[in-house]
Hints:
By secondary structure, this protein is an alpha/beta fold. The protein has one domain (45-312): Alpha/Beta hydrolase fold, catalytic domain (Rossmann fold, 3-Layer(aba) Sandwich), CATH 3.40.50. The chain contains 13 helices and eight strands. It has helices spanning 2-37, 79-82, 84-90, 116-129, 144-154, 178-193, 197-200, 211-224, 228-235, 237-247, 268-279, 292-295, 297-312; strands spanning 45-49, 52-59, 67-71, 96-100, 136-142, 159-167, 254-258, 282-285. The chain has an eight-stranded mixed β-sheet with strand order 1-2-4-3-5-6-7-8, with helices on both faces. Helix 4 (116-129) crosses helix 5. The longest helix has 36 residues, at 2-37.
Amino acid sequence: xxxxxxxxKASAGxxxxxxxxxxxxxxxxxxxxxxxxxxxxxxxxxxxxxxxQMSVQVExxxxxxxxxxxxxxxxxxxxxxxxxxxxxxxxGQFRTAVVERFGYGYSDxxxxxxxxxxxxxxxxxxxxxxxxxxxxxxxxxxxGGLEALYWAQKYPNEVAxxxxxxxxxxxxxDELDFKGEKRTMDLGRKLKFFGISRVTGGDELTTDLTGYExxxxxxxxxxxxLNDSQYAEGLAxxxxxxxxxxxxxxxxxxxxxxxxxxxxxxxxxxxxxxFAAEAGARLVQLDVxxxxxxxxxxxxxxxxxxxxxxxxx
Length: 313
């Protein structure tokens, strides 16, 4: 029996060592978060919406209408930097605006409703305070497609067109295992507390960022990963999709860039293809991953320019 006792003592020692290591790394993570918060320097303008700060970056000439408003997908830690490969290629000809909704980029993390109507109200107000006026061409990525479609449904005079960047449509979520998705989010939030996100990384671009911008993006990734605002958005996802589905397809010109769907699932491309056919949208199929504007910024900028010139010149 003595060997078993030795093993038991050794196992207890390993467990104790592991707990100390986890505790130490967790403490380091939270100290780092506090220090990093002081190093974050907003890349755009900060405006106050409903008592909280929202980040808006507007670039390009004021002489051309309409402004292209880029809307991030779920979980994109730093939309301004994420969209940079595309905005850099568009700003020479068009005015672009990136609104970092609450919980994203440099914007505050809030504890308010994240239903699509509330999110849209915040974003419209942020643009107004930043001096922008509709109509806009909306360029949504992923889940941002729901907001763009809802915007066109509720305020058709404000939306001149939509350029989908592998955007979601209501039927994109028909096969979503919501309980499984919630379990994944809950686990992610637990792991974030312990600082595991510092090991797994985040949405880091491989091109078009300076060293300073990359450092800012990395800090924003740690700050924003599955924060309370993003978590609330995730919980509202199916209700938001149902709301947009009930509103029908808006009558606006659309150009849709669609990924190969491999990073999401077999359902993604068929849902987008069906929607494009029903909406009369031009669909451009790309054999790239979900962040299409990072893989093919030159092509997307070229075709977006042609779309803008054809409809708004």
